Amino acid sequence: MLLVTKEFTFDAAHNLVKYHGKCERLHGHTYKLIVTVAGEKDEEGMVIDFIELKNIVKENVLNILDHSYINDIIEQPSAENIAEWIWERLTEKLKTDRYFLYEVKLYETPTSYVTLRRNLDV
After folding, report:
1. In which pathway does it act (predicted)?
2. Is residue 39 part of a domain?
């Protein structure tokens, strides 16, 4: 099995309405999103074309979240909830008989991130 990974960035604002601290106030981040697909190579020697992966993520995630107020999309937009929302948007789009969505990693800051990974035992 091979892992194919692509990185993206997007800018968005949010506030954590169920949180007590400075993050309950409106603020923004430059998020870094890392999407990893796992699978086997096709006859062209690729698991998934980087361009195809880029287009799927752009259409289903970035076009919605970039320069948005995330609270309009996700009720409590913690990094964990945003990562789960991204997973739900991509899991079926990145699933064929050869590959599947393996991991979503979302950086809220350069040193703070959430990782959501498929359980391979299921």
Report:
1. Purine metabolism; 7-cyano-7-deazaguanine biosynthesis
2. yes
Q: Give the active site residue among 40, 52, 59, 67.
A: 67
The stretch 63-81 carries a mean pLDDT of 97
| Number of domain units in the chain | 1
User: What residue numbers bound the domain in which 34 lies?
Assistant: 2-117
Instruction: Check residue 89 and report its DSSP letter.
Output: H
Contact 5, 38 (CB under 8 A): no
Entry pTM: 0.93
Residue type, 73: I
Q: According to DSSP H, which parts of the chain are helical? A: 50-57, 63-65, 79-90
Task: Convert 1-37 to b/e letters by CB count within 10 Å (16 or more is b).
Answer: eeebebebebebebbbeeeeeeeeeeeebebbbebbb
The pLDDT tens digits of the residues spanning 7-19 come to: 999 999 999 998 8
Active site residue 23: yes
